[in-house]
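Q: Make up one entry.
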Amino acid sequence: LYGCATKDLELAESHYKMGLAYLNSETDYLSIVEFEKALSINRDDDRVYYAVATFYLKKNRPLDAERYIKKAISLKSDNLEYQNLLATILATRNETLKAIDIWKKIVEDPKYGTPEVVYFNIASAYLQLRNLSEAELNLKKSIQANPRILSTYITLSDLYIQQKRYSDAENTLKQILDLNPMFNQGKILLAKVYSYQNKNDKSIALLK
């Protein structure tokens, strides 16, 4: 009996790995078949429920995604990636405040490896709610956690531009160019910010 159980688990693992291979391919629809085969053998593998939730979110089926990720969490409640996916699913369903609450709990855990991503997600959620002060705060936290992600600076500078805080936008964009002087998106945006401040000479010089 032990040998049979071991073989069953090996077969379930094989289906799971095949599903993962399909998930990021052009034939991703085949992944769900493999995942369901895995679950038919082993109903207690939290990884498979997480993978199925990822598939359904990818296919814009958030209700199905939520159902599966909650099952994964019921099996392994301390997995922060599962919590993160649940928050992402809730955000897509416009349950933004619930998503923010989950993300805030995640970043409180020092073991979480990419807090900059979670802070950015929180900021994006606050932007959706038009809470610009909280969005700004969390974008700054994201940059502090990982100052090498240039897109976060762009989002923060866009926020400043919306508020006509051109000096803050200028300083933020200069930080980008300090990190990567050849980053064209940063150059173009900074040139616009210079023009908004009637610094036309600087704008022209930057784009030469």
User: Anything to note?
Assistant: The radius of gyration is 22 Å.
